[in-house]
């Protein structure tokens, strides 16, 4: 009777493993939204826990069959053979579910990482747009133009590492058919805005450099003119002090 019960337990265990394999490993999932992906991750975590919890039952079966084999070798031998099959299938099921759970967790982590990089680069683009707007309608003053140019250049020196990560993470997910429509839409919008703002910022940088050069040249001309006027004022003052007749002065002084 004990052998019959153990045989029944082994059959039930094998049936449960077959159902678990069908439910968790043979479904053809399509992850078209973050919610679907997140639900799949949580489901596989529960599946892993469920399968691992069966380890206690498997161990009890193993111990009982060993005890029976020690008492009744003939019955125990047949059960031991069936047990080995169940143990092998159980270990295989555990490994496959662990692997799929790990893969889905990695995919979810990849998606979250992509969102984080997109947030960082979007914040940088917002900053760049703000700096570009601040360069509009600047007064023709050396300090104002120079400060605006340095501020814009400091933002443009932003490294390209984050954009590389965005491209690689996005392509990895798209190649796996994971959230491909959503990611493609996000990347297309991000890249379009990046290209537009980058070109606008570079154009403003060039315009500011030209404006700065013009302001410097104008300032230099004004400085030379002021120096010449100061020298002329000094000479005229000297003439007046010495009571020099106008007709005795150089033509430019007259």
TrEMBL record:
Entry-linked Pfam families: Spectrin (PF00435)
Stored Gene3D superfamilies: 1.20.58.60
Residue stretches in coiled coil: 3-64, 215-242
Top-rank lineage group of the source organism: Eukaryota
SUPFAM superfamilies documented for this protein: Spectrin repeat
Keywords from the named record: Coiled coil
Keyword Repressor: no
Protein name stated in the entry: UTRO protein
Originating organism: Eolophus roseicapilla
Gene that specifies this protein: Utrn_1
